[in-house]
Amino acid sequence: MTNDLLFDFTVDKATKKVFITREFDADLSLVWDAFTKKELLDQWIAPKPMKCKTKYMDFKVGGKRFYAMVTPEGQERWAIQEYTSITPKTNFKMYNAFADANENPELPGSEWDHTFSEQGGKTKVSIVIYNESLERLERILDGFTQGMKMALANLENLLATLSQK
Amino acid sequence: MRRDIFQAIADPTRRAIIALIALQAMTPNAIAENFNTTRQAVSKHLRILTECELVKQEHHGREIYYTLEIEKMKEIDKWLAQYRKIWETRFNQLDKVLSTIKKQKK
């Protein structure tokens, strides 16, 4: 797989913003679909070994997506997104917040701004994430690493048990 | 209550304090001389930084000196690097999804 695709990740602690830019070797409408259709989103948005499941997604202004990141142990971490602005194949904005299994959001959340552009058959996506509190990001990461740590701890226990025999 | 470490470094005065004591340990008075605010305001910033474990106090005789916890600062960068890693993984997964779809279309 060619990996000369642009990837830029910067964090501005002062303005509490994360800037992410990535290029994809595909045309604009396909990349747009990958970000805005649940069947496609669920296939890539959860970093392994996590999995993503979207309970429902209504991609329109004022519409919502209710989804969970699932750890290898089956632990679910729910979140809810509300689309605040959509310019087809150009830009969409949403508000993301953690939630419980009954769709009650935990505020404050974060504001996401996605911009898409195509050049020479490649599509560039720029994401700006504004977090009222960067501690939220810490929680996101805790969730991801927790899943991996648990998997490792299970393996350690298993190895310990086996070596005792 | 656990302090939000990122909230702590989001404040410009607190970032300036961190930059000052990164060079040398300083007393609260010496730190306050660098700012146009009251001693109390600086004390409050120092208390928040202490609660976040970004700085620590050292007693030398009667004086209290504040020093920077370099390891804690490194921790923040390590943590941000991990967040970057998550996005890398995510996008590599998306590359695969995109190339699968492109092949199916042909």
Task: Tell me about this structure.
The complex is a heterodimer of chains A (165) and B (106). Chain A is of the alpha+beta class and 165 residues long. Chain A has one domain: 2-Layer Sandwich (Alpha-D-Glucose-1,6-Bisphosphate, Chain A, domain 4). Chain A is 28% helix and 45% strand. Chain A has three helices and eight strands. Chain A has helices at residues 28-36, 38-44, 135-164; strands at residues 7-12, 17-24, 51-57, 64-70, 76-87, 91-99, 105-119, 122-131. In chain A, strands 1-2-8-7-6-5-4-3 form an eight-stranded antiparallel sheet. In chain A, α1 (28-36) packs across α2. The longest helix of chain A is centred in the last third of the chain and has 30 residues, at 135-164. The mean pLDDT of chain A is 83. Chain B is mainly α and 106 residues long. Chain B folds into two domains: 1-68, Winged helix-like DNA-binding domain superfamily/Winged helix DNA-binding domain (Arc Repressor Mutant, subunit A); 70-106. Chain B is 68% helix and 11% strand. Chain B is built from five helices and two strands, in the order ααααββα. Chain B has helices at residues 5-10, 12-23, 28-32, 39-51, 70-105, and strands at residues 55-60, 63-68. In chain B, a hairpin with a 2-residue loop joins β1 and β2. The longest helix of chain B has 36 residues, at 70-105. The radius of gyration of chain B is 21 Å and the shape is elongated. The N and C termini of chain B lie far apart (58 Å). The model of chain B has no long low-confidence stretch (mean pLDDT 85). Chains A and B meet through β1, β2, α1, α2 and α3 of A and α1 and α5 of B.
The strand line-up of the biggest sheet of chain A is 1-2-8-7-6-5-4-3
Q: pLDDT below 50 for ≥5 consecutive residues: which ranges of chain B?
A: none
Number of strands of chain A: 8
Strand content of chain B: 5-15%
The CATH topology of chain A corresponds to Alpha-D-Glucose-1,6-Bisphosphate, Chain A, domain 4
Largest interface comes to:
A-B, 33 and 28 residues
- The N- to C-terminal Cα distance of chain B equals 58 Å
Major beta sheet, strand line-up of chain B: 1-2
Shape of chain A: globular
What is the number of helices of chain A?
3
**What spatial form of chain B do the alpha-carbon principal axes imply?**
elongated
